[in-house]
Write a structure and sequence with these properties.
Helix content of chain B: 55-70%
Number of helices of chain A: 8
Distance between the termini of chain A: 83 Å
Strand order of the largest sheet of chain B: 1-2-3
Shape of chain A: elongated
Order of helices and strands of chain B: HHHHEEEHHHHHHHHHHEHEHEH
Radius of gyration of chain A: 27 Å
Order of helices and strands of chain A: HHHHEEHEHEEEEHEEHE
Helix content of chain A: 10-25%
Shape of chain B: globular
Radius of gyration of chain B: 21 Å
Oligomer: heterodimer
Number of domains of chain B: 2
Number of domains of chain A: 1
Structural class of chain A: alpha+beta
Largest sheet of chain A: 2 strands, antiparallel
Distance between the termini of chain B: 19 Å
């Protein structure tokens, strides 16, 4: 075997004019280069499309910066996914555009129930996409900031009962009052969301450190108050007596300012589809 | 470092950014002497050596070791999550090794440019990884850790088989494209505030797929592999990937590299045939070595394929400074 000479290895010091074949090769190479450039750039820019078309807001993990800042700072490593004790956090796929690999929470499937006590996902984030406290220069949308540190019902008797969280990730909203069992004065008996539901929740009376399947914890309630009963944050939601449009008095779940938007109410609502949802990135409007 | 090697050192940096390797302008006297002697080499002797080489068994020492390391590193991520053993948490873009932050340099760069705000953990992780690859040889990240490199190597085997069957031809592309793509993605990150490259980085996509399960994003990786099999050999790693350039720059001053010895080389060029970045091996072409011993440039991925292939041991791994001590 002998070493084949590369095309530019000319022996004579004076460069002879390039052959027609060489010129053609060079031109083809340029075309290929442009083709590959176009392909890669096209693929990269295609990430914009979902951003332009899809306006569906996704619930980000607790402590997430505003969406634009979140997308620019998230390094897509999934460390928040790994630390979550209930695996509420999932990573987005290709169809989410710039969201490829960014974390989100599908609260109806598995809400964040703060059973880690310390908002571990924020602690795990290496780039500050999730932050206990937003850096000052990023600014804060009105109503996003919580009036006070939320008190975790599970830790209420502890020396430090609050959750290290300064901004909400959304706000719960009663979307289908007509179907709400509490408003109808109905009770609930059995497994919430059926026997095959995979979602988990921490039940303090069962095990403080180990969340169990919601399906393993059947209820027998004379009057449904699941969204209030299982809400992990103190004072975020309650059953109040309100006036119905026809003037009669009735009971209804009412969301209050401490709501952080964790989505447990959305997960635990036994009605299909759910009566209460978390509006992602919503702020508290007084 | 003498003046000839110094000139080559800077030449090789330019070559990394996409310039074609050139014939050296000046060659040291001892090297020149060997070049002259080689022109007068006994042809029979050379033929005998070539024959012996053809009969020699193929060695895959470095390749096997490298594949083992690559697979173990990537599985460490996977099992840390699956078994919850918390050794290496996260993905290749950012992780924690027993609690200590590690952040991929290119991802860190994208985030810093897009977000324009740098927190302490990001600095710690980036600095650690920078020092790590400064010691271990820059682009050795590509061949020893990057999961896309491994699947691309397998795709390359298919490509080479098809080339041998004359079903496809390797279409080479201008290497300056990689520098261009680095600049474009950096500017895009800075201007749009989105980490554009991260959404198409096959390294990140594959790493996450291995840890968190497969997704549609793998289709993009598949498309790249198809392109490489049927159109252009190792196109992504050679002509497009900005991660390679980032680590290449880190490798400029790295002490770990492959070293070339002129006197024992037969100039058969087998090393250049197996190499991902054959432009760094231009020095093995007859008459090109500027000195009797020449370190291979920063774009080299330290994969060891040439070391395995070289029948005369003219290419070896070398640690600057350390070899002198031993």
């Amino acid at each position: 075997m002998s070493e084949s000479k590369p095309p530019d290895d000319t022996q004579t010091p004076a460069t002879p004019p390039p052959s027609r074949e060489r010129v053609r090769q060079a031109r083809r190479r340029w075309l290929r280069t442009i083709l590959l450039t176009g392909g890669v750039m096209g693929a990269a820019l295609s990430g914009f499309l979902p951003l332009v078309y899809a306006r569906t807001k996704r619930l980000r993990p607790p402590g997430a910066l505003d969406e634009k800042d979140f997308l620019s700072s998230c390094i897509k490593c999934g460390q928040c996914v790994q630390v979550c004790p209930v695996q509420a956090i999932k990573l987005a796929d290709l169809v989410d555009g710039f969201g490829v690999g960014t974390p989100y929470i599908d609260a109806r499937e598995q809400a964040c129930d703060f059973s880690c006590d310390a908002v571990q996902c924020i602690l795990a984030c290496p780039t500050g996409s999730l932050a206990y406290k937003k850096p000052a220069f990023l600014g804060s949308r009105k109503g996003a900031r919580l009036a006070a540190a939320p008190i975790l019902k599970a830790k209420e008797k502890d020396a430090e009962p609050t959750l290290n969280l300064s901004e909400r990730i959304g706000v719960a909203r009663l979307t289908r009052p007509e179907a709400c069992l509490a408003i109808q004065g109905k009770g609930f008996k059995g497994q919430v969301r059926g026997p095959s539901f995979q979602g988990r929740l921490r039940y303090m009376e069962v095990d403080r450190w180990k969340p169990i399947g919601v399906a393993e914890h059947p209820y027998d309630l004379a009057e449904c108050d699941l969204c209030v009963r299982e809400c992990p944050v103190k004072g975020a939601i309650s059953i109040e007596t309100v006036f119905a449009p026809d003037g009669s008095k009735r009971k209804s779940p009412v969301v209050h300012e401490p709501c952080v938007g964790c989505g447990v109410c959305e997960m635990i609502c036994p009605v299909e589809p759910t009566c209460i949802v978390v509006d992602a990135r919503e702020v508290w409007n007084t | 470092m003498n003046q000839f090697l110094k000139r080559r050192f800077f030449d090789q940096i330019a070559v990394m950014f996409g310039r074609e390797p050139k014939k050296p302008a000046a060659i040291s006297a001892p090297a020149q002497q060997i070049h002259v002697l080689k022109r007068a080499t006994n042809k029979e002797k050379l033929q005998a050596a070539t024959l012996a080489h053809e009969r020699a068994k193929k060695v895959h020492k470095w390749r096997n070791l490298r594949w083992a390391v690559l697979i173990v590193v990537n599985l460490m991520f996977t099992f840390s999550f699956w078994l919850d053993i918390q050794i290496l948490e996260g993905a290749l873009t950012a992780s924690r090794f027993v609690g200590f932050h590690l952040i991929d340099l290119n991802s860190a760069l994208q985030v810093m440019l897009a977000h324009k705000h740098i927190i302490v953990n990001l600095v710690i992780g980036t600095a650690t990884v920078f020092v790590l690859w400064l010691i271990l040889g820059g682009r050795s990240f590509c061949s020893w850790v990057c999961p896309y490199h491994l699947v691309a190597e397998w795709a390359e085997k298919i490509h080479l088989y098809l080339v041998q069957k004359k079903l496809v031809t390797d279409q080479n592309i201008d290497r300056r494209l990689r520098t261009l793509s680095w600049i474009v993605f950096a500017v895009l990150a800075l201007a749009t505030g989105y980490t554009m490259f991260e959404s198409i980085s096959p390294t990140g996509i594959l790493s996450r797929a291995l840890i968190y399960g497969p997704g549609l994003a793998l289709l993009w990786v598949l498309a790249l592999l198809v392109f490489e099999v049927f159109f252009s050999r190792r196109a992504w790693c050679r002509y497009a990937c900005p991660i390679g350039l980032t680590y290449g720059v880190v490798g400029i001053l790295s002490p770990v590299r492959v070293k070339y010895k002129l006197d024992s080389c037969f100039h058969e060029g087998d090393c250049r045939k197996v190499c991902l970045v054959p432009h760094v091996l231009d020095t093995v072409i007859k008459g090109r070595a500027v000195d009797t011993e020449v370190p291979i440039g920063p774009d080299c991925t330290r994969c060891g394929l040439c070391v395995d292939t070289c029948p005369t041991g003219s290419l070896t791994f070398d640690v600057k400074g350390l070899s002198k001590l031993l």
